[in-house]
Amino acid sequence: MSRLPGRPGRLAVREAIDLLAEHAEDLNAAVRRVARLAYAILDGTLIPIDRVADQKPYYSGKHKRHGVNVQIIADCKGRLVWASPALPGAVHDLTAARTHGLIDALASANVMTFADKAYQGAGGGIRTPFKHRRYRPGLSRRQKTVNRHHAKIRAVGERAVATLKGWKILAKLRCCPRRATKIVQAILVLHRPDQPKPTMKRTRFTGNPVNVSGHSTSTPAGDVDLG
């Protein structure tokens, strides 16, 4: 990305991310699109971060590292449809999905959704694999067969996770974890082929980036921290 005149490069990137994020779909709009599909795939992923002062909420016992939890909806071809705002990494996937209203939104739209064992007990239209219970008989042949087919469907959803985490900026966030949501939303907009992208133009005198509506997107000169 070329540096905008009169603006530090890091601040220009921040402004571009914020501008893109403003055009991201909310959950209701995404669910309306998903409702037209045969089914959807729900999955959670951890985006690694640097350690922060208050690190305990961001430590994921499952992944054994610090990060933020992002919930992802994919279509039956593995394309990224929607990603949630980021929550601290210690939050369980099912808790995160409920916090964002994902379970209720998908159920109200009558969307059949496939998810892994982390979402067991979600209810609604969330389909999870059979889970072997301790001190109980093993899974039957039929249950194992269902789980294999279930896993094949969910595997397609990993493409959406790879699409999101394929961006180098998400390999490990070096900024404040609170910026993760804006970054994820900006990536969502860039991956929506049917959504018009906001544009920025250069002003002749001030050098401040201005969006197509003519409103300045400048921020105070001293605020150059992506965090």
UniProtKB/TrEMBL annotation:
<keyword id="KW-0255">Endonuclease</keyword>
<feature type="compositionally biased region" description="Polar residues">
    <location>
        <begin position="205"/>
        <end position="220"/>
    </location>
</feature>
<dbReference type="InterPro" id="IPR027806">
    <property type="entry name" value="HARBI1_dom"/>
</dbReference>
<protein>
    <submittedName>
        <fullName>DDE superfamily endonuclease</fullName>
    </submittedName>
</protein>
<feature type="region of interest" description="Disordered">
    <location>
        <begin position="198"/>
        <end position="227"/>
    </location>
</feature>
<keyword id="KW-0540">Nuclease</keyword>
<dbReference type="GO" id="GO:0004519">
    <property type="term" value="F:endonuclease activity"/>
</dbReference>
<keyword id="KW-0378">Hydrolase</keyword>
<dbReference type="GO" id="GO:0046872">
    <property type="term" value="F:metal ion binding"/>
</dbReference>
<keyword id="KW-0479">Metal-binding</keyword>
<dbReference type="Pfam" id="PF13359">
    <property type="entry name" value="DDE_Tnp_4"/>
</dbReference>
